[in-house]
Amino acid sequence: MEQQLEKPSEVFGGRKGKMIQLLKAIEEARKNFKELKKDGKNPMFKNNFSTITNIFDSCKSSLEENGINVSFHTYINEVMQKDVLVLTLTHIPSGEVKTSQLILTDDGKKGAQAVGSAITYHRRYMLQAMLNLEADGETDDDGTKASHTPRSNVTTLNVEPEKPKPTKNDLTAGNVTDADFSYNGEPYRIWTKKDNIELFNDVKPWSQRLKKLLSTGDKESLQTLNVKEVDRILSEIESYQNKDQKWKDSVTDYIKGIFGETKSA
Hints:
By secondary structure, this protein is of the alpha+beta class. It has two domains: 8-147, no CATH class; 173-259, no CATH class. Helix content is 40%, strand content 17%. The strands form three sheets. It has a three-stranded antiparallel beta sheet with strand order 3-4-5. It has a two-stranded antiparallel ribbon with strand order 1-2. α2 (20-30) crosses α3 (52-65), α6 runs antiparallel to α7 and α6 (203-216) runs parallel beside α8. The longest helix is centred in the middle third of the chain and has 21 residues, at 111-131. The chain starts with 7 loop residues before the first helix and ends in a 6-residue tail after the last helix.
């Protein structure tokens, strides 16, 4: 039995890895592939899947007509001590080959039947992938048998999804008292009413708009609605590292001047 990893040249094709004739032959063969049936029944998932017989019925005759031979063999990877399944497509007229290798998923503790199930499972999906045949997703009885962990031993944790915290993008009226005021930067927000919010990308137009609203509207109500946002922006200005203290003091005094001394609600 083989004991070493196969060489890259053997994996990716003979004749220095060229596969032009083989790939052309595969494309020609695909034109005459028959409909891929699903005669297998999966009692666990209660659906159907394509058996290995279905797959060969779909493609074998067309592949042979175009000079393509399909073969499988296994060997032991000596380093990992794992069984490896190898699929080889050989274009007989040119001698070009295309090969795919896959480590069998069985852990070696469940006997020959599990290994056989794993081989059957991987033969089907390897061939489907190599020929771009319709895939069956995860619906497979052999896949169930070849799994490392029996389904009955899998513990399912019922974790209640965490309620997302309001962010700066949660700007609906219902989030006025719950909105996130911990972030820095834009948007700079003004609540003109409890159910209406305006957004600004810069402190200057934000402060000018706020000044106008306070001078023409219900100042007390506007102060109550916007006090947390004003506090946030004042705190942020103090933390600016790229601004000198004179600029910070000037902007802070201006905001306090139009809004009045702030206090958190």
